Amino acid sequence: MMHLGFQYTAVFKAVFLRFRFNIYVLIGLMMLSGIVYGQSPWDILAKRSSTLGLKKGTLNFKAGALQLKLLKSSQTVAALNPGKERTFDFSPSDRLKLRSSNGLYQLGDLNLVLKTQGGEWKKYATAASRMPVRLMKSGGHILAASDLGPTLASTIPLRVRRYWEVQGGHLILRFELNNKSKQAVEIGGLGIPMIFNNILEGKTLEQTHAQNVFYDPYIGRDAGYLQVTRLSGHAPSLLVVPYGHTPFEAYNPLLDDPTPRGIAFEGFYEWTVYSKAYAEQEWKNAAQWNTPTSLILKPGETRNYGVKFIVSGTVKTIEQTLEKNQRPVAISVPGYVLPQDVDARLFLKYNRKVKTIAVEPQQALTVTASATTKNGWKSYQVQGKSWGRARLTVTYEDGLVQTINYKVIKPETEVIADYGNFLTTKQWFEQKDPIFKRSPSVISYDEDKKVQVTQDNRAWIAGLSDEGGAGGWLGAMMKELIAPNKTEIHKLQRFADSTLFGQIQVSTGPEKFGVRKSLFYYAPDSLPKGTYDSGINFKTWSAWPAREANSVGRSYNYPHVAAVHWVMYRLARNYKGLVNESDWRKYLTYAAETSLAMMRLAPYYAQFGQMEGTVFYLILKDLKAEGMLSLANALEEKMKVRALHWRSLKYPFGSEMPWDSTGQEEVYMWSSYFGFQDKAAVTMDAILAYVPIVPHWAYNGNARRYWDFLYGGKLSRIERMIHHYGSALNAIPILTDYRKHPNDFYLLRAGYGGLMGSISNITENGFAPAAFHAFPSTLRNDGLSGDYGSGFFGYAVNTASYILDHPEFGWLAFGGNLSKEGSWIHVKLTTAAKSAVFVAPAGLWITLDAGQIAEVSYQSGSGEVRLKLEPSNEYLPNALLKFQENSPLKGRYSIENAERNSRGNYVIPLVADQGTEVILKKN
Fold first, then answer.
1. Contact, 483 vs 413, CB < 8 A?
2. DSSP-derived secondary structure for 463-480
3. Rounded distance, CA 501 to CA 583, Å?
4. What is the pLDDT of residues 249-269, one digit of tens each?
5. Is 90 exceeded by the pLDDT of residue 702?
6. Cys-Cys with 569: which of 132, 266, 587, 862 at CB 3.0–4.6 Å?
């Protein structure tokens, strides 16, 4: 969530008047939007000649649970409404006239890339040069049929016919391809554009949540599907599944569609059936999710391809809908990001037996069959062996092929250690910097070039603030919260006490505790010649002058700084010798004052939910525990004003962007804290709408974000980002909500997917990128560290282990390896922090402010819980333990022979060479 940059909208004038932007942000907005002398890309699009034949009218059909409207001329979709809610449209019918010229894809179009022997690949697209299609006979289950020859190039060697049908109560889009030539034709690209209403341009949040959808792919070959969900998270949803043999091989962005992509529109994609032609050309430098294939169509041969549209309920019912419609369903525990020390489980449900399971690369995973469940789920043990991407290919007896993409990572302990080491060595900036005063610090890093980024025309990247510049030092500090390292902390304390407080953060005067937008700035006229790299173009709005860089008016910068002070407080308060123990009060005070300063000095944006806003809730909890009630009361009062404002809004997810996916985290946390459960529920529904569960590590738990490569990335473009910081931040409210609803397995899977997704892109040497690139031409990490630290904040404050007894799958563990011994369930924790565990059957949430849990044991009969704590070390003589019960049914838990300190922690003396047992029993 960085800077205003949304495209031209109806509220542009209001933006200027109400938001009181400075001229630099306004210019940036206009440049990013493409607004030149009053013309936006949308203005230009509107001037294009319409070729869809809108004046010829439409055809209307009842198609099972859907109402289908087709244009008579093109027989592409004009509207697609759920039968029970006619006012809602899955298609962008509100833009139909605007998007009616050549090259603009509609639902019902087809893309082909073909070649004959000895020839070159050639693309054919029904949308490229519109002509009325040739109507064919319809009737019975066929609603409409047409020959697409007139709207395809005359040189195409195939006869292409399209059928809109209803079978089994479901709408079907089918294409019949016949080789009319005398030569074999290779189909190297076959794509069905998936055009749904994800254009948010010019709409309010109320309108987008009521009218718009997002859609997410499961790129799983024959088992693949597309899920289309409303922004509100409410029913109905729409599933697009294969009809006949139409594998979902790749997910191709339709970059040639002229609809202006930007902050308010991610773009359209096609369901790619064959992708060999792309793999040999545009995608040749990327390893694909599935092996690219093609098909040889012999002279006179005919093949059919299609998709089926199935109306479903909310996102939580998607898997049940798939199962009901005899589609394969896969569930992996704890997910599809597999640390090498975790014993994972995979459950498959399909009405055919598994014939073979193959692993690519061959040594990446081991898969061992285990017992089938009572309702027919096939069960497997899965272990990650070799670091990197891994593909599981399941072939069923009927020939259906399903692929499941995993990411194997090092054990979490090693991943986090590598990350901390990289930040405090490779990214550690300590050199003379008399102008910008950024030393010492953790600075942005370019992994492609293996260099620190000390200059960039986006001032914040090199300026240690904003998400894109604060990411390094924020991540480094959060790492110490879960895995303290004395050497690293020594460096980071110097940063916190000098570069942070005093440079990034104002330390004196009326703006004390304000947070500057950047330490780096562009002022060539007032600084010595040679200060700036001549190879960088600084003639851009983002190269802020000193005045803009020194502004303290951007609220989103404050949580980063507050988090640093809060972690320093925790280290000083809970450990011996890591930080001067007498400084804990100073750091907690600074954390609180930073939180209050945000509302005093950056009041406009403070009305919105902040990324990492959870830190303010954590600070408040610690202020109360410490008895610092004056600051606690002041902070709580200010936060309640914000929460009351959110409660007054139907969808309180505003930000500096027209739509965003980061404010929801804080909105949920404070709404829940103040008892506004109605608003917390609305927020959770919205979160789940853009956090999918699919059998693919890249998309599972991946909170939608598609513009921050512009602000925090190296390869700058509008593109679906894979596990940007939103994944971990949105996992905070999801897992918080799960602990309130421990029978909601969906919440646990979604939250844990986002949690683990946040560390999935950390490389073997510890570099963490802004995100992973989803375009099939790239499919790799971005080269810049960017704003990753915000996501690591989400991981650090939310990492935990979960133990549950699932009604179908039995005892399961997320974040640990489970074994059974009679009525006892034992779980050895595998998280890096090992400081939190939720025992779902008991509703018991156990956390340690200091210390680690090696193993948890739970007796299912009595409910007794036993913890084995890790031994003491020179910094950790005692463990500090708390627990919380969610609606205890029979008695309450207690710990015998353990004293509590003034903050409510049970103080558990640790032994140097052996574990310490703690027993929690019910009264």
1. yes
2. HT-HHHHHHHHHHHHHHH
3. 14
4. 999 999 999 999 999 999 999
5. yes
6. 587
Contact present, 369 and 336 (Cβ < 8 Å): no
- The pLDDT value recorded for residue 888 is 54
Confidence at residue 886, expressed as pLDDT on a 0 to 100 scale: 85
State mean pLDDT over 216-240.
97
Give the type of residue at 219: I
CB contact set of 83 (below 8 Å; sequence gap of 6+) = 62, 64, 65, 66, 67, 311
Backbone angles phi, psi at 899, to 5 degrees: -90, 150
Say how far apart CA 410 and CA 69 lie, in whole Å: 51
Contact criterion met (CB below 8 Å) for 721 and 771: yes
Amino acid at 220: G
The whole-angstrom distance between residue 588's C-alpha and the CA centroid of its chain comes to: 31
Please choose, from the candidates 654, 786, 665, the residue with its C-alpha nearest in 3D space to the C-alpha of residue 715.
786
d(CA 743, CA 212): 30
Q: Residues 516, 549: contact at Cβ < 8 Å? A: yes
> In this structure, are residues 101 and 72 in contact, taking their beta carbons and an 8 Å threshold?
no
Contact 485, 495 (CB under 8 A): no
Q: CB of 221 within 8 A of CB of 403?
A: yes
Q: Which of 240, 162, 233, 136 is nearest to 196 (CA)?
A: 240
Long-range contacts of 132-140 (CB under 8 A, 24+ apart): 132/53, 132/56, 132/73, 132/74, 133/73, 133/74, 133/75, 133/162, 135/75, 136/161
**Cβ proximity of 498 and 564 under 8 Å:** no
In 674-786, which ranges are continuous DSSP H helix?
Answer: 677-690, 709-712, 726-740, 745-760
Q: Determine the Cα–Cα distance for residues 690 and 682; give it in Å rounded to an integer.
A: 13
Burial zone of 683 (CB within 10 Å; 0-12 exposed, 13-18 middle, 19+ buried): buried
Neighbours of 464 (CB within 10 A): 29
What the block records as the tokens of 789 is 């630290």
Residue 837: which residues within 8 A CB-CB, separation 6 or more?
800, 801, 802, 803, 815, 816, 827, 829, 845, 846, 853, 856
- Residue 8: is its pLDDT beyond 50? no
Contact present, 617 and 670 (Cβ < 8 Å): yes
- pTM here is 0.96
Are 284 and 808 in contact by the 8 Å Cβ rule? The answer is no
Of 76, 104, 109, 78, residue with least CA distance to 91: 78
The rounded distance, in Å, linking the Cα atoms of 729 and 788 is 11
Give the integer Cα–Cα distance in Å for 601 and 588.
Answer: 20
Burial 180-197, CB ≥16 within 10 A → b, else e: eeeeebbbbbbbbbbbbb
pLDDT of residue 658: 79
Residue among 448, 439, 446 at smallest CA distance from 473: 439
Q: Residue 117 region, left (φ>0) first, then alpha (ψ -120 to 50), else beta?
A: beta
Neighbours of 320 (CB within 10 A): 12
> Quick one: which of 749, 774, 748, 769 has its CA closest to 759?
769
Residue closest to 252 by CA, chosen among 33, 105, 142, 49: 105
Angle 720-723-728 (CA atoms, 0-180°, nearest 5)? 135
Structure-token pair, residue 191: 């794509």
Rg of the chain over all Cα atoms, to the nearest angstrom = 28
